[in-house]
Design goal:
With 65 residues, the chain is α+β, with helices and mostly antiparallel strands. It is built from one helix and two strands.
Length: 65
């Protein structure tokens, strides 16, 4: 089986040689990155909705004000 490596700050590490604590921190980092990505998607969805609401409001406002 091929070795599994990971690159951190430009340096490559063999996953099998990392301590359990380092592996736990890596798992936490990956989970956190996934959550940040999910939240960024949610923000993009909310921003799109906000823009649509603002456009709809603008179209409903009196033109002579």
């Amino acid at each position: 089986m091929a070795e599994q490596n990971i690159t951190i700050d430009g340096k490559e590490y063999n996953l099998d040689k990392l301590s359990d604590e380092a592996k736990n921190q890596l798992t936490s980092l990956r989970v956190t990155d996934q959550e940040i990505s999910r939240l960024q998607t949610q923000i993009a969805i909310a921003q799109t909705a906000r823009n649509a609401y603002a456009k709809a409001l603008s179209e409903l406002l009196p033109k002579d004000a």
